[in-house]
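Why do we care about 3D structure at all? Because function follows from shape, and shape follows, mostly, from sequence. That is the central idea of this module. The next example makes it concrete: a single protein chain, its amino acid sequence, and then its structure expressed as tokens.
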Amino acid sequence: MESEPIVILGGTGDQGLGLALRFAKAGRPVVIGSRKAERAQAAAQEVRSKVSGARVEGLENADAAARGETVILSVPFEHVAATLKGVRAALRPGQIVVSMAVPLATAIGDGAARTLGVWQGSCAELAASLVPKGVTVVSAFQNVSAHRLLELDRAVECDVVVSGEREARERVMALCELVPGLRGIDGGGLSSARIVESLTALLIGLNVRYGVPAGAGLRFTGLPGRAGDA
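And the structure:
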């Protein structure tokens, strides 16, 4: 799987770009997707300028989505449905779509420290209702600070709760190990995303109250290097 590109839709935003930089630095090929190919190409060029020898390219979202077995969806909650509908025809059975978005109340002009109710239960479960049959959705990376991802000379120091079907979540947990300081935590089934997504709003509030512009992270104590299956 090491030769398979990691696709990041929304890789032009800070968090998606941060992941692209980290995966490229780990030696993995990366494909950045955007609604406009020009923006994706500009982001790919930024990665190449910061990571020597980076294997990265920028494509329009649908073209990017067809390129890899793992497709990370790094777009705001309000764009999740439209993005998935736009790439649906390019997705195929066996692929994993990683949902990073959180239904923050900013989507309706409210504060970032609050979340919206989602009929399906979480953004990840919403995504699962929109992908074609045979495509698996995994929840991950919601609580990783974009600022810390972009600081390539520092470890990120954050746990990532990964939820979804067993084989798919194990593959995404393995991606976490590519980033110094990240640890994938086995979060069990996709319904756990309901809890994990709400923690993002909590962290945003903590960042404001404690004055942490770089973003606080989560660490779970008492667990082995890889958490056991739930």
